[in-house]
Amino acid sequence: ILKLTQKVNYSTAKSILRNKTIKTLLKEDSTNVAVRGWVRSVRKQKQISFATINDGSNLKGIQAILSSEDAEKLTTGACVELHGSLIPSPGREQTKELKVDGLKVLGECDVKRHTTEFLRSIGHLRMRGNTGSAVLRIRNAASEGLRDFFRDQEFIMTNTPILTSHDCEGGGEVFKVSPIDTTNPQEFFKKSVYLTVSGQLHAEITASAMSRVYTFGPVFRAEESLTSRHLAEFWMLEAEIAFIDDLAPLLDVTEASVQQTTRHVLETCGEDLDFFNQWVDKSLLERLHKSVDKPFIRMTYTEAIDVLQKAQSRDKTKFQFPTIWGSSLQSEHERYLASDYCSQPVFVTDYPSELKPFYMRANPDGKTVGCFDLLLPGIGEIVGGSMREERYKVLEQKMKHAKMNMEEYQWYLDLRKYGSAPHGGYGIGFERLLLWFTGLENVREVIPMPRWVGNCKY
Ligand code: 4AD
C-alpha cells in the first residue's frame, strides 16, 4: 500500500504533445522532423531558397532550405508546416537547419510593406516579431522565477478577488463596476463595487491565518497620467508576511525575490537578453549582473531629501519639483537617486505619514511610517511595501483621521482584534520589472494587450 506521505517520483519533464518546438528540435538528434510556425522571411533564389520559420520557442527560429517552387508558396507571416531532415548548418548563426521535402501552408498571409506607424497600431501581430516574442519569453521566465522563489521560501500562493468594495490605496483611482443593463449601479451588489487596485488587504486576511502568502494577478487603476510607466491594467506580485517586526526582514525578502528572479531570467533567457543588450540597451547585461552580485542600497526618505537638496544646491535647475521634507518624490527625483547617485537598486524607507495610505505602521517618531519604495536605475519605483499597522487603537485612529467608512472596514479592524500578528508586505509592479529585464522604455511594450487612458483594443 502506498502511503500518501511517501515520496513519489513523477517525471514531469516528458513532453505530452507530440509536436516538438523548434527549440527542442535544435537540441535533439532526430533527422525526419516536422516544423510548425510562422514565416519570418523568405529569400528566393534561382536554384535553392531560404526561409526563416519561427514558432516563438526561441529568438531566431530555424532556417529552412527549400526548392524555389516551394519558396514561391511562402509569404512573410504565413503559418506553415514543413517536413524534412535536420542537417548541420554551415553558418555560424545556428547549429542545424532544415532541408525541406514537404510543405503545407496552414494559414495564408497577404503581405504588403507597412509604415512604422501602421505596425504600431497592429499590436495583435507584434509577437510575431523578435522584440514582441522575446518580451513574452522573458515575461514567462520572470513569473516562473517569482513563483520558484516564493515556493522555496514556503509561501502559500493565494488568489485575491478582482471585485472589491474598497479602494486599498485610497488614491481614488478606482474603476466602478455595474451590470450593463441597469440604471442603478448599486443594484447588483446593493453597494458600490470596484475593480481591485491591489490585493493587499485581502492578502492580509490570508496571511493572518497562513503566515506567508503571495498573490499574482491583474490590478486596475483609473490612472489619467499618460506616462511610460502607467497602465490602467497591470500585473502585481503581492507578498504578505506575518511575524516580522520591522522593515529590515521585509527589505531582505524583497531584495532576494528580485535578485533570484533576475538570476532565473539570466540563466534561462540568454539569447533574448543578448538581443535586447545588442539592440535596445547596451548596458543591460552589465546592470543586471551588478544587481545580483551586489546588495541593494538602503536609505531613509529623510536621507534621500538631503541628497536631493545637495544636488539642487549644486545645480539650481536640476529639478522641476520641490525637494523639501514632506513633498512626494517625483519621477525626476527617483531617477536621480537610483541612476545618478546610486547606479544600483535603492530602497527609500520611512516616508512622511501624510504621503502614505492609512494601513502603514506608524514609526515611534510620530511623523513617518515604516514603509519603502524600491527604485531602479533608469526606471524609478518598481516595488512599494510597508509594515502594516497591527495595533487596533492606532489603526482605528488612523482610519478616522482618513475619514474612512468604519463599518465598511470593520473586518480589517477585526484582524487586529482577534489574534493580531505583526506583519508587512509589498507589491512588485510586474511590467516595470520587465522594463528592467528588457531595457525597453514603455510599459505598453511589455504586456501583450496594454490598456491605458483612451485605449482598450481587443
Ligand atoms: O506602490 P503601490 O501603489 O503599492 C500597492 O498597491 C501596495 N498595496 C502593494 C502591497 O504592499 N501589497 O503599487 C505597487 C507597484 C508600484 O511600485 C509600481 O511598480 C506598480 O505597482 N504600479 C504600476 N504599474 C503600472 N501601471 C500603473 N498605473 C501602476 N501603479 C503602480
UniProtKB/TrEMBL annotation:
It is an enzyme of class 6 (ligase). One of its GO terms (cellular component) is mitochondrion. Coiled coil: none annotated. It comes from the Eukaryota. Its EC number is 6.1.1.22. Keywords: Aminoacyl-tRNA synthetase, ATP-binding, Ligase, Nucleotide-binding, Protein biosynthesis. The gene is PARPA_10375.1 scaffold 40148. GO terms for molecular function: asparagine-tRNA ligase activity; ATP binding; nucleic acid binding. This is Asparagine--tRNA ligase, mitochondrial. Pfam families: tRNA-synt_2 (PF00152), tRNA_anti-codon (PF01336). GO terms for biological process: asparaginyl-tRNA aminoacylation. The keyword DNA-binding does not apply.
